[in-house]
Every structure is written in structure tokens, then in C-alpha cells.
């Protein structure tokens, strides 16, 4: 083994030229389609009519609060849960629903979870080999060592998991997940067990490995920044439903509702009533396109969209509190005609002292007006 390890490490087996799919071969990414899918654990619907088309080779993040159905969606894709109604298809072929349930091992999917799930009594190499049982042993070992080499851990092949740090263990888990060349990789909060610094580097490395292998990836996270850093597209979920699907930039610049706007930034929330395509507030008049006159609305203003100045046009306000947060200052401002306070995140805030009278302006691109929805 040591000989093989040396040869492999120096011989630079090309990670991109493996053989057949499921046998450490070249990855053939699969598209994954959820068509009107519902699911229940016996009580209310945990997934409520999900329609989702994931393109082959796409990295898609499932984003949402705890309990919104992200893991359930992943389990349905893996074949670990049956659908209640609707169908799940891979490359246009139904794998769940319509009386069909293809078992997980036949789907060509790889799984990776937050707790690494490495077997503690097996060496790192044996852990990675675990997914390659159909291969000739020598070929499997070469493929496993090549995958370990790709994540920079080939020299740990004979060690046991306890000898590795959390970040290293997660990289082993990544090597194990990709070595059988799955068509679809399903990852459930894969980085949440790591501290922030490690998380960033393991995440970046995982993303480059994903792009290199070309596998379709479905990644669960509750962290919007993580989703924005990784995803080609993001699915924002709430209570078993899809709230919005789009690129990071689409979700940020055009949130579908108050829930979506809140998810990507800290916001100030005001209430008002629409009048002829606009709404008047103590912070100014904002467009409310398509909302009928007289309809109650929620106005949402991102904290970084509030500009403060010591003089000039704007709404008069008084600095009540301020706190230095490193990259920005967080201000709390009292505004005449408004019951609550307005919060602003400002880069150059040192000159605005507590008690000072200032003016504030909300930048239009950070203001969103939504017809009131009882769910919010
Ligand atoms: N095994 C189970 N039995 C019964 N109910 C379950 C089971 N697993 C999940 N649920 C429920 O189904 C819903 C969706 O759960 P799911 O785990 O998919 O959400 P999630 O978004 O992944 O949450 P988290 O981020 O906390 O993992 C929740 O209401 C949850 O309580």
C-alpha cells in the first residue's frame, strides 16, 4: 500500500480521467426534476407541491430556516423517503412516484452530511474505499488515493479519523463522496460543524472539486452567505414550499416577499397603505407598483441602504445609539412621526455622535414594498 501510495502521490493520477460512472469513472451529471411533489411523515405536509428542475452539473443550494423541508427534499432525491404524490425524475426517468421507487444504491447519488460520518475504526483510505465496492481492489485503491490526493490528504491514508482535524475529516468525507463519481451529490449542511475560518476554506475547496468533477450538487444550508458563495441558483424554502428560485443576485435584488428580503439582509420594517402606485412614510414616499390603492403594505428598508448626513436633504433624525462593529457602525435613529427606531449600517460613522441631529435618506435600491401577507 505504501508503495502504491508513493507512486500515486508522485505519479499524479489524473483525477479527471477516471473510468465508468459508479466505478470511479468520469462523472456524467444528471438532471433532477421534482414534479408537483408532496411528502408527509404522517402529519401535515413536510413538502407541499414542490416543482423544481435542477440542471445537470448545476450547484443548487436549498436555503431556509430549520424545519422548512430542506433535508426531506434531499432524502427524496436520494430515495431515502417515498413521495406522497408527484414524481422525482433523474434525466427524465422517474425514480420516485407513479408506483416506482428506485432504491438509493441504484440512483448514482452520493451523500455527504455535516458530521462527516467517517467510520472511526477504519483507516482514512478504507473510509474512502467504502464507496467503491464494485471495483477491482487495485483500481479502487488507486482511485481512492487519487481522490485523497485531490483534497491534499494522501499522506494520511493509513491514519485513523481521530488523528485528523474537523476540516480534514470533512475533506475525507468529500473524497469519499466523489470517488464513485456520483451523477448527483447530495450534501446536508456539509460545513456547519466547522468553525468559520475552516468553513470558508473547506467550502471553497469543495466547490472547486464539485466544478472539476462536474457532478450535479444539491446542497442544504441555512446560511444565506454560504448559499450565495456556492450556488449557481438558490431555492429559498419556507414551510415545505418554494418561496423563490433564482441566482444569488436575483434573490438579493428582487426578493419575492418580505420573508425573502429579510433572509438576505438586516432590514427596517414599516407599515403603510398603498395609494396610487406609491406609499408615503415618515422616511419618504416609495413606489408600490401593482398594489391596489387602500391595500395595507409592508415597507422593508435594508439597514445598509440608510445614508446619514450631518446636513442636506433627507428626513430629520436624531442619533440615539451607535456601536462600532468593525467593518461598519450600527446606528439607532429616532425619526419624527415614527414609533420605532430606524437602524442603519454605515461605513464612515465616526462623526455622527449620540444626540446629534442628522438627516437620513433611504436608497431606492434598498427599499421594497410588499402587499401585506398574514404569513409574514
Ligand atoms: N423523521 C421524522 N418524523 C416526523 N417528522 C419529521 C421527521 N423528520 C423531519 N420531520 C418534520 O418534517 C419537517 C421538515 O423537516 P426537515 O428536516 O426536512 O427540515 P429542514 O429544513 O431540513 O430542517 P433542519 O434545518 O432543522 O434540518 C419538520 O416539520 C420536521 O419536524
UniProtKB/TrEMBL annotation:
GO biological process: quaternary ammonium group transport
CDD domains, per database record: ABC_Carb_Solutes_like (cd03259)
Annotated InterPro entries: AAA+_ATPase (IPR003593), ABC_SmlMolc_Importer (IPR050093), ABC_transporter-like_ATP-bd (IPR003439), ABC_transporter-like_CS (IPR017871), ABC_transpr_FbpC (IPR015853), Mo/tungstate-bd_C_term_dom (IPR008995), P-loop_NTPase (IPR027417), Transp-assoc_OB_typ2 (IPR013611)
GO cellular component, one term: ATP-binding cassette (ABC) transporter complex
Start and end residues of each ABC transporter domain: 32-264
Enzyme class: hydrolase
An example Gene Ontology molecular-function term: ATP binding
PROSITE patterns per record: ABC_TRANSPORTER_1 (PS00211), ABC_TRANSPORTER_2 (PS50893)
Sorted UniProt keywords: ATP-binding, Cell membrane, Hydrolase, Ion transport, Iron, Iron transport, Membrane, Nucleotide-binding, Transport
One Pfam family, short name: ABC_tran
Claim: Phosphoprotein is one of the keywords in the record: no
SUPFAM superfamilies for this protein: MOP-like (SSF50331), P-loop containing nucleoside triphosphate hydrolases (SSF52540)
Family note: Belongs to the ABC transporter superfamily.
Protein name: Spermidine/putrescine import ATP-binding protein PotA
Amino acid at each position: 500500500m505504501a508503495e502504491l501510495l508513493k507512486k500515486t502521490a508522485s505519479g499524479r493520477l489524473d483525477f479527471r480521467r477516471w473510468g465508468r460512472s459508479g466505478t470511479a469513472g468520469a462523472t456524467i451529471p444528471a438532471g433532477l426534476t421534482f414534479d408537483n411533489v408532496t411528502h408527509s411523515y404522517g402529519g401535515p405536509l413536510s413538502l407541499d407541491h414542490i416543482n423544481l428542475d435542477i440542471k445537470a452539473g448545476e450547484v443548487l443550494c436549498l436555503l431556509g430556516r430549520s424545519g422548512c423541508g430542506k433535508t426531506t427534499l434531499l432524502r427524496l432525491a436520494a430515495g431515502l423517503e417515498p413521495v406522497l404524490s408527484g414524481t422525482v425524475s433523474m434525466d427524465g426517468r422517474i425514480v420516485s412516484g407513479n408506483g416506482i421507487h428506485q432504491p438509493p444504491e441504484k440512483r448514482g447519488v452520493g451523500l455527504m452530511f455535516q458530521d462527516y460520518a467517517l467510520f472511526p475504526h477504519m483507516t482514512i483510505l478504507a473510509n474512502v474505499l467504502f464507496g467503491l465496492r464494485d471495483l477491482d481492489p487495485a483500481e479502487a485503491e488507486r482511485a481512492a488515493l487519487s481522490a485523497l490526493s485531490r483534497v491534499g490528504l494522501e499522506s494520511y491514508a493509513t491514519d485513523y479519523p481521530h488523528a485528523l482535524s474537523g476540516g480534514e475529516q470533512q475533506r475525507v468525507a468529500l473524497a469519499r463522496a466523489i470517488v464513485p463519481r456520483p451523477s448527483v451529490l447530495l450534501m446536508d449542511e456539509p460545513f456547519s460543524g466547522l468553525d468559520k475560518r475552516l468553513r470558508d476554506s473547506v467550502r471553497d475547496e469543495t466547490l472547486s472539486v464539485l466544478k472539476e468533477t462536474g457532478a450535479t450538487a444539491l446542497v442544504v444550508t441555512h446560511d444565506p452567505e454560504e448559499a450565495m458563495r456556492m450556488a449557481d441558483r438558490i431555492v429559498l424554502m419556507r414551510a415545505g414550499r418554494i418561496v423563490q428560485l433564482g441566482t444569488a443576485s436575483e434573490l438579493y435584488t428582487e426578493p419575492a416577499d418580505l420573508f425573502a428580503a429579510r433572509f438576505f439582509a438586516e432590514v427596517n420594517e414599516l407599515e403603510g397603505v398603498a395609494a396610487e402606485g406609491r406609499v408615503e412614510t415618515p422616511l419618504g414616499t416609495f413606489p408600490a407598483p401593482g398594489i391596489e390603492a387602500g391595500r395595507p403594505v409592508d415597507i422593508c428598508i435594508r439597514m445598509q441602504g440608510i445614508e446619514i448626513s450631518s446636513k442636506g436633504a433627507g428626513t430629520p433624525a436624531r442619533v440615539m445609539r451607535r456601536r462600532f462593529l468593525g467593518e461598519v457602525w450600527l446606528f439607532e435613529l429616532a425619526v419624527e412621526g415614527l414609533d420605532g427606531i430606524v437602524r442603519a449600517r454605515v461605513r464612515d460613522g465616526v462623526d455622527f455622535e449620540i444626540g446629534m441631529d442628522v438627516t437620513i435618506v433611504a436608497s431606492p435600491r434598498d427599499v421594497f414594498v410588499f402587499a401585506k401577507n398574514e404569513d409574514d
